[in-house]
């Protein structure tokens, strides 16, 4: 079975920051972080961050998570924004109205940084002005809004538009994680992750 040791060598670990906020959905971030953990810290370094600095975050089901890493987008290679529901009073809607996270994401954009989103996390990127005219997707209940806000909604469980990688709802985050492993570390490492997770990727990755 191919292992991460066979992955293409990088000068340093790939640095992935997952953005958390009050009301975030657990599965929306658990999927990809589980995948990335298989690669190993010598290849991929994960951090949990918030736009408000180090603090405790309360998830949609009441779980408390301590985010100890500072908001430092210039020290990230990949930033991933998980979803947080979509109805009135959801974490996503609160963050869109509050505005701090969309502003921080807009300011984070730079050459060489890949921005990703799971489920309705794409709507936070949209609120930051980062999906207008770009190929993207989100949870099916939010597709019309994403389209109305200027996103170029296309088919695919995962949509890779270069420095913007988005996916559909909830468990699609696992597929996004495996796709990013394939993109950065090769197909053998992605297959290894699937075998360890006992998970088979679903749908397609739209890279056209």
Automatic annotation (TrEMBL):
UniProt-listed InterPro entries: Class_I_gatase-like (IPR029062), DJ-1/PfpI (IPR002818), INH-QAR (IPR052158)
Domain DJ-1/PfpI residue range list: 15-182
Gene3D superfamilies assigned: 3.40.50.880
Native species: Streptomyces globosus
Taxonomic classification: Bacteria, Bacillati, Actinomycetota, Actinomycetes, Kitasatosporales
Protein name, UniProt field: DJ-1/PfpI family protein
GO BP annotations, alphabetical order: regulation of DNA-templated transcription
């Amino acid at each position: 079975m191919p292992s991460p040791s066979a992955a293409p060598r990088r000068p340093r670990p790939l640095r992935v920051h997952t953005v958390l906020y009050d009301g975030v959905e657990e599965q929306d971030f658990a999927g990809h972080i589980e995948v990335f953990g298989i690669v190993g810290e010598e290849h991929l370094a994960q951090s949990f961050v918030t736009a408000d600095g180090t603090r405790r975050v309360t998830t949609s089901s009441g779980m408390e998570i301590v985010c100890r890493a500072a908001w430092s987008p210039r020290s990230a290679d990949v930033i991933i924004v998980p979803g947080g529901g979509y109805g009135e009073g959801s974490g996503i809607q609160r963050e869109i109205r509050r505005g701090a996270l969309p502003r921080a994401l807009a300011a984070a954009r730079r050459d060489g940084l890949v921005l990703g989103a799971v489920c309705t996390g794409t709507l936070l990127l949209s609120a930051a002005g980062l999906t207008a005219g770009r190929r993207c997707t989100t949870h099916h209940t939010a597709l019309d809004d994403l389209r109305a806000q200027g996103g170029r909604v296309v088919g695919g469980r995962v949509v890779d538009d270069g420095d913007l990688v988005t996916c559909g709802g909830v468990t699609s985050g696992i597929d996004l994680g495996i796709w990013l492993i394939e993109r950065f570390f090769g197909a053998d490492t992605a297959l290894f992750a699937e075998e360890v997770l006992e998970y088979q990727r679903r749908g397609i990755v739209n890279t056209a």
